[in-house]
Write a structure and sequence with these properties.
2 domains, single chain, about 230 residues, mainly alpha, 3-stranded antiparallel sheet, 3 strands
Length: about 230
């Protein structure tokens, strides 16, 4: 039996260990542990086998603005994913979400919806006492977008990241993509004069709700190597 078939069998046992029947759950969990020990398969090996990727192409610029990068990072954290950004001249930036099972697909969909929502809100936002200075008007739109992001990000601060998933994702990225570079854009600076624009951005984001994705592939009892 090759390793992939063994991993599939272990994964099936892990899912059966979530059964409402305590005897069935205990037996499945015990079988998963035995198979892992017998074939020298680690939790990291199983997680790596369940890694997936999903991409979303958004934006028109080779260098995405700060708000787009920040949004992708917020969404990635919600679903225990990591996001890589591929930039190609003449094409839209590609935001590639990497994570466990269906998390990347949900993350890329969520990012697409929120990107369009924020992009539209930023584009239609009209600052009070709009000036003829196009650069200043764009700066104020960015202030609005940053406040929108701050409001959304505040809703995910209490999420607890799954460190085992994070390590597995990082190993996967290193194996598949090698060394990657951080893409950083600086936010616009704000001051007292931006108070109303900040309030507008925060109000516009009140309807957005994000929910943390938690994988149940590894029951806590297995992570602690408990023997039932």
């Amino acid at each position: 039996m090759d390793q992939q078939k063994i991993i599939d069998k272990i994964s099936k046992c892990l899912r059966l260990s979530e059964s409402c029947n305590p005897n069935e759950a205990a037996a499945a969990l015990r079988q998963a542990r035995l198979l892992m020990d017998k074939h020298n398969i680690s939790e990291m090996d199983i997680r790596a086998a369940h890694m997936d990727e999903s991409s979303a192409e958004q934006g028109l610029h080779f260098n995405p603005p700060f708000w787009a990068l920040a949004l992708s990072d917020i969404v990635a954290k919600c679903f225990d994913c990591r996001v890589l950004i591929a930039r190609r001249y003449g094409k839209q930036p590609e935001y590639r979400f990497i994570g466990l099972d269906c998390a990347p697909s949900i993350a890329s969909y969520t990012f697409t919806v929120l990107y369009r929502k924020l992009d539209q809100a930023r584009s239609t936002f009209t600052p009070e006492q709009e000036t003829r200075d196009e650069a200043e008007n764009n700066r104020r739109k960015d202030v609005f977008a940053q406040a929108w992001l701050f409001r959304v990000a505040s809703k995910v601060k209490e999420f607890v990241a799954d460190e085992i998933v994070r390590k597995a994702v990082d190993e996967y990225v290193r194996d598949v993509y090698g060394n990657t570079e951080a893409l950083i854009q600086d936010p616009v600076e704000t001051g007292n004069k931006d108070y109303k624009d900040i309030l507008s951005g925060m109000r516009a984001a009140e309807e957005v709700e994000l929910y943390h994705s938690m994988s149940s592939l590894f029951p806590q009892a297995l992570l602690m190597k408990s023997v039932i």
